[in-house]
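Record pair follows.
FIRST:
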Amino acid sequence: MLRVMVLGAYGSAGRAVVSSLAALDEVDLVAGGRRASPLEGLAAQVDKLHTVVVDAHDRQSLHRALTDVDVVINCIGPYIGNGLHIIEAAVDAHTHYVDLASEQEHLRRALRFGDAARAAGVTVLVGAGAYPGLSGLLLQTLLAAMPDATRAELALITAHPREGEAGPAQVESGLLELGYPHQALVGGRLEARFPGSRRAFDFGGGFQRRTLMEWPQLEVIWAGLHTDLTEMSTWVCLDGQPPTPRWLLRAVSWLGLHRPTRRSAWLRQLVLRTRLRPETEQERAVVGQGALFASVAGPGGERTLIATIDDVAWATAWLPTQLVRTWSRGALPAGVRTPMDVLSASEQLHAFRAAPGVRVAER
């Protein structure tokens, strides 16, 4: 039986991952977090769930918690601040690692552990959420069908979260990321690209046509390293909020909210408290939902896949669950990798599109 620990288990993403993994007979599940009370509340809702109080920022506490754990799933964002030291602790403990990160800077930092992870026989999997994660598998499926593609785009839209599911980590990740380089794939090379450009996408369904903001995700770096694409960009619209003006993003970058100071932390919290809530009937109709858009183009034309998802939190837990299932059947390649490096995109997409609440359309 595989012993799996979910760090940040009582957060929005953590709860979804715990709920999904609890359905697997081959898993001995452990929920980890800093506070005992919410862990106990979670254990009261999930059968056979073990709990451990662990401070992920305390090296000794973290190392003790990872002893005798086969896989740790890190759900503590933002990963620029809560990723690298947990990867290091996992490699030291010979524990496989999974996270839901989207930040390019986190992937760049994680890649430094490639040699250490291979020496320890540990697999470090970065970006195993819905976006990035499932979106990358959509991209791989399109590239397999159209190997002469030269251009690609990925996009995500999420509606306002359901009551009790709202978490500030995604927004805080964006604020922190503005202090680090972003890269898009241009002319076959990874080049600097500041976020904030706007473009409209037609998702169909309840979202219809929406304007999204360009925000380079870690899958762009993967594409630059592993594909023949010459152009790639990624776009987002989170929590139903309209795109942030580019001048404001530059102002946030200038303020240096990524710096570990009290002033920066106070300003980040001020921004987080201004998050919007659904106001129109259309917004209320899609609460908790999301859609993934993947498109490739080349000499042979253009192909697009759009996955509409009734429950974004459930979709976020999909890949960690599939990875644990894969581990229960045998080892995965050691080193620092993404789901695109270790999973069959066609198999995962076939299973994903058969799940309740998922609709995948091709254009």
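SECOND:
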Amino acid sequence: MKDIINELPGIELPVGEVTNRLDHMWESDDAGSPSAFRASQMNVVLHFGWDVTAEEAQERFDALLKFAQRYPSRIIVLCPTREIENGAMRAKLFSQCYIGESHREMCCCEALLLGYEPENSGFLANQVSIWLEPDLPSYHWFCGVPGERIEKYFDTLLVGVRRSIYDSSYEAEDLSHLNWPEPGLLGDLAMARLLPVRQAIGQFLSGYDISSLCANLESVQVRHCPTMSGEALRLMEWIRSCLSDCERCEDCSALRANFSIDPCEADDTDCSLLLEFTYSDGRYFKWRKFAEGSLGEIEASLGKQEERITTRVKPLGPEQTIAEALFF
């Protein structure tokens, strides 16, 4: 497998020359030069593990560049490599300016890429600290890094990081189960992608009293396609959190309901994500997101009348998803 750093764009430089080259690259006395449009608000570290493919790395790198056009950032990309040893490192520098409808809408982005040996966590933390923009908040995006290795970064690489994020639909393990020093400072991109789903479901169910939704509830089921396992898990957590508001009710049925997460049925090829409530008194609620496009559908009979409603679930763009995970 090729090293990721070889596949991502940028000019290869000695590690020690990267910051100097950055400083000279933006030097100019011209008020209309690109340097006038370079004003970082934060540092974002994109941290890859061994099993990430070149295509996956490029997709995430491109998403972060789009994010940086909206939220100016210094991007640092950490790429594990087999081509170096004895603590040596490799570096690349990428910069690009994006021009909007007018020259005044220009945005200049920079990315510093570092090839590293995963075992050298201390050296890695030292180098990243040199590359960070001082006095700006830092965020960390893990992609394909094993949980046991992440825990070794708690006291080095992640010291002072405002928030760490990952994608539970991509990772082989649920990183929320790690012994994070501050669990509240961990975000999941799968949860971020659920924002329009939660809005669509919440808007409909808000028309019913919580005690009515909990009464006689027998089961809550979430089903998902292979690429949305993280979304299914976070959707179930959200539903359980919402229903927990009724715990004050005496003998609440929601406390005894069966909650399950399963793959979509083999013959249901048009469904990517599904949520279903069933009740012992015959009531039901069913929401599904179609596999193609941005449409979903609600079928429900919750005591008023039988309803069948088409819902629009417009997915967030990659840069919006990152922002939602980092900031909210």
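COMMENT: The mean pLDDT is 90.
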